[in-house]
Amino acid sequence: QVQLVESGGGLVQAGGSLRLSCTSSGRTIGNSAMAWFRQAPGNRRELVAAIGRADFATYADSVKGRFTISRDAAKNTLYLQMNMLKFEDTAVYYCAGRRGIYSGVRPDDYDYWGQGTQVTVGT
User: Fold this and answer.
1) Tens digits of per-residue pLDDT, 6-45?
2) Cα–Cα distance, 24 to 39 (Å, whole number)
3) DSSP of 62-85, one letter per residue?
4) Which of 59, 63, 68, 69 minimizes the C-alpha distance to 105?
5) For 84-102, how does the pLDDT look when each residue is reduced to its tens digit (9 = 90+)?
């Protein structure tokens, strides 16, 4: 059974940084497409960043240049480094995994989900 567990969320002031982690059990993340999604109250779940074959990364336009997705296969952990945080980045952030190696951009493209971690950016 695959389990994804996020950590690293919290409260930070605008302009600050946070690093989210997602540890996988039951599946090797190095062989899977992985992604971070987020969902703010009243909004749809949206892609933040995805990483797939050969560690090719995709980012939402709103986070390009500020966020970096990466993974450590030895630790079986996915990361999201978030810099220059803005108020509009406030959301619950979810880690997601896919059975295949090619990343997708829609929530329906992913098969496994974490429970989410809250990120709140103060003004």
Assistant:
1) 999 999 999 999 999 999 998 888 889 999 999 999 999 9
2) 21
3) TTTTTEEEEEETTTTEEEEEE-S-
4) 59
5) 999 999 999 999 999 988 8
